[in-house]
Structure formats: structure tokens, C-alpha cells
Amino acid sequence: MRLLRFFVWLFSLILVFVIQSSFTIYNTSLNLTVLLAYYAGIKGKEMIGLFIGAMIGFLEDNLSGSLVGINMLSKGLIGYMSAFVYNRFFIWTPLFGVVIVILFTLIDGLLIYTLNSVFSKTPADLSVAFVVIMVQGMLNAIFGYFIKPVDMKIYK
Fold it and tell me: Which side of the chain, N or C, has fewer Cβ within a 10 Å radius?
């Protein structure tokens, strides 16, 4: 069963990387790896979300050729925060799923932009980067409606 789960995650990751690198919407690249880190966080505990998110970010860093560690930090943080928010405060409804995915996409994009600006050259103007991150958040929001935890907590 663990081997099957590993191959499902591997196939999902490869599929996300292919889709993310192949398609653009309004000249904006997709940021679907945030969804995988978010999903890993709400399905597991904090450390599982952190580990899987960091591994997703590590692969993304190596495949993109950028500074290694930036995506690893941001995706690991998204995996940890999604598990923390879900396990502590979060009562799942489709609207909250959408809002949380938009928020995590914004956090991921702004963290990557800030770290690239600090440790490398500034990738773009902040206003342009913010518009791109907002479009990515709106595109990810569509998937946030459908990603839900298994136990579907109705109350805390």
C-alpha cells in the first residue's frame, strides 16, 4: 500500500510539473506545486506536510535551475502551515478551502520573490510580481474548492 501511495504521489508530481511548465494563462505560469504541498499538509501532520512540501520544493528548485533552497523553504512552509491551520483552527467548507489556497499561494509567491530579491537579483518589479501572484492565486482557487480533508471536520 505504501508503494502504491508513493507511485501515486510521484505520478501526481510529474503531472503537475508537466502541466505547470507547458501551459500559461494570460502569459502567467501556473503554480500548481502549492496545491500538492497544501494537500500533503491537510492529509498528514505538520512534519509530514513540511517534509513532503520541502521535497516538492527541492525538486522544483533543481528542475528550474534557480537558487536551491528557495522553493524548498516556501513549499515546506506551505505544507507545515496547512497542516497546522487544519489541525488547530480550520473547519473545512469549500469557501474556506478557496480562501486558504489563495492565501497560501500569495505567501508562497511573495516569499519566493523576496528571497530571490535578497539572495539573487530582483526577478521583476514588485507590482508586476504581485499581479502574477494574484492571478496564480485565483487559478489555484478553483482547485481549492475541491481539495478537502478526508475526515471533513464540521466543528471543533
Answer: N
* Average pLDDT of the segment spanning 1-27: 87
The full set of domain ranges for the chain reads 31-144
DSSP-assigned beta bridge partners for residue 105? none
Strand pairing class (24-25; 28-29): antiparallel
For 25, other C-beta atoms within 10 Å of its C-beta total 11
List, in order, residues 6 or more apart from 12 with CB less than 8 Å away.
Answer: 36
What does the pLDDT look like over 93-125, one tens digit per residue?
888 889 999 999 999 999 999 998 898 887 788
- The rounded distance, in Å, linking the Cα atoms of 33 and 70 is 14
pLDDT per position as a tens digit, 63-93: 887 778 899 999 999 999 998 888 777 677 8
User: What distance in Å separates the CA atoms of residue 10 and residue 24, rounded to the nearest whole number?
Assistant: 23
Alpha helical stretches, state H, the chain: 2-22, 33-43, 46-64, 70-88, 94-119, 126-144
